[in-house]
Amino acid sequence: MIHASAKLLVGLLFVVATVLFTGCVERSLKISSDPQGARVFVNDKEIGVTPVKTNFLWYGEYDLILRREGFKTLKTSYLAKAPWYQYPPIDLIAECLIATTIKDEHVLPTYQLEPAAPPVLEEAVKRAVDLRSEAVGQAPPTE
After folding, report:
1. d(CA 112, CA 38)
2. Does 139 score more than 70 pLDDT?
3. How close are the terminal C-alpha atoms of the chain, in Å?
């Protein structure tokens, strides 16, 4: 029969080992633009203004939108590929048994924003009328 103190010691050793031998992987995307100061949306969620760094949980494709006044909106995507240590069963070791934090930083290329051409007045007015008609549920006026 195991004494209560031995059970307590085994339990304590298990808790200490769990705390000491657990690691994690910090995944991040670093996004920049030229010119700087563009608002960045990742999967339709605003994350900040370039240059910006954000964490992510899963590897895969992310939709990116960069917007800055006076420049064309840039819509693109980025495929965050998993490094070798994130494939099963190696990922179990990397995430749970290595007693350190692994940093996986994806530095995206600098996105070049193109200046936007000012809209032609007649086109802007027509678009505004069409949007207003659409909002109130009417057919747009015909010319």
Report:
1. 10
2. no
3. 95
> What CA–CA distances, in Å, run from 139 to 16, 22, 130, 131, 132?
70, 62, 8, 10, 10
pLDDT digits (tens, 9 = 90+) for 83-104: 988 888 888 777 777 778 889 9
Residues 2-57 have pLDDT tens digits of 677 777 767 666 655 555 555 688 999 999 999 999 999 999 999 999 999 999 99
The answer as to whether 28 is a domain residue is yes
Is 4 a member of any domain? no
Question: Residue 78 falls within a domain, yes or no?
Answer: yes
CA 62 centroid distance within chain: 7
Number of domains composing the chain: 1
**Separation between Cα atoms, residue 41 and residue 139, nearest integer Å:** 33
The CATH number for 100's domain is 2.60.40
3-state secondary structure of 115: strand
**Is this prediction's pTM over 0.85?**
no
* 7, part of any domain: no
Nearest-CA neighbor of 72 among 119, 31, 108? Answer: 119
Domain coverage including residue 38 = 23-136
